[in-house]
Amino acid sequence: MRVTIDRVGADFEREPLVRPFGFKGAYVTEIWQTVAGMQSSGGHRAACLNTQSVLWSDAELFARHTEAAGNGLMFAMTEFALQQARGRSFETPFDLLDELLPETYEYGRQLTRKQDLRLTFALNALVGVDAAAWVLYARENGLASFDEMVPSRYRTALDHRHRRVACIPLMAYAIPMPEIAQHVEEGFFFLKVKIGSDPDRDGDREKMLRWDMARVQAIHEAIGRRETPYTSNGRIPYYFDANGRYDSKDRLCRFLDHCRRIGAFEQIAIIEEPFPEEYRESVADLGVRIAADESAHSDRDVEERIGLGYGAIALKPIAKTLSMTLRMADVAHRAGVPLFCADLTVGPIQVDWNKNVACRLPPLPGMAVGVVETNGHQNYARWPVLQGFHPCSGAAWMTPREGCFVLDDDFYARSGGILQDSPHYLDLAFGTH
């Protein structure tokens, strides 16, 4: 059944953080939660969230503007996409994204006066729009669950049903060592560590490398000997994310050599996006699993990165749209390349959009359970308030236990609540305030 959009709405809330959040050599101090509302001619409404990350999606644009201005530019692109969508019909959300993405990207290039605007900036702006399209699609077609909603072509990549999914917290630059150790004491066992710091904010890559070496050594000395039943080697796995900050394989190899010297190398599960996306040398000879994130904007990029030896793909339905994520997952799965879900410091509702994909992916090599990164609980000052906006607020599967989300029949029956309305965000998109 075709879905026709006859009304749209949008708004945003600025969420303060516990502390400045550092990655890509910079820091953010707040995160905008934007909401995209759509109403169909059939009378159904949907209001879905988009967590904006200007720094993640285009670090150069972030550096050119004040933090609020960068967020304003992305929100303007979301509003543009919604206005373009009004009056249009679509058979599936894929069709709508195929129409809106090039138009929104071109509008963004003009708006930002940046001809090399990264495609992820436009995809990030479209997350809520795409999610609202999926919810309308499900309601118009009488599809009651995530499994029913996903077209059959894409289900082969999502045929697992994990009962436990490891919750991966993020250790950003400013996270103090006692807090890292405390996470492990609380049962978290798969840690994502940001590397690529710019300690003196002067762009010196040698200082970056020395900082990274010292940081990883301190972490390994603090927690490296801890054991876990969820990995094949019984040790805590490390997930290092450089966000494209390393400029050469030689510099990365020096980092890896240091990891060997301190005994941490064998515990490296993933190094994510070490190089800028324009760096197109093979990474097959580095001896560790290299994952693509920002460089994999689309399914075509996934094919290219696999050809360059990348051994995993980070999926982000909460950053690149569910539609694009399903296409990316299909390509990687057919190539036999492992997949996992990474975060964008999203709120509780979007955690469950991510979780619905993560719990259906095969486990990463060496892991006995599924995995999903989520760090919003570490970073949002109002995390309990945001949990209260979730339509399934209070459900046991929303809170990790001993480092894992325990996903029972209720989680799968309710699809983590993603097809239910949040009154708060529905009012934000369509209310008369």
Walk me through the structure.
The protein is of the alpha/beta class. The chain folds into two domains: 3-150 and 425-430, Enolase-like, domain 1, CATH 3.30.390; 156-418, TIM Barrel, CATH 3.20.20.120. 41% of the residues lie in helices and 19% in strands. It has 17 helices and 14 strands. The chain has helices at 54-57, 59-64, 67-85, 93-112, 119-140, 146-149, 177-185, 205-223, 249-262, 299-307, 317-320, 322-334, 348-358, 376-379, 383-388, 409-414, 423-430; strands at residues 3-23, 26-40, 45-51, 89-90, 164-168, 170-171, 191-194, 238-241, 268-272, 290-292, 312-315, 339-341, 370-373, 404-406. Strands 6-7-8-9-10-11-12 form a seven-stranded parallel sheet. β8 (238-241), α9 and β9 form a beta-alpha-beta unit. The longest helix has 22 residues, at 119-140. The chain is globular. The mean pLDDT is 96.
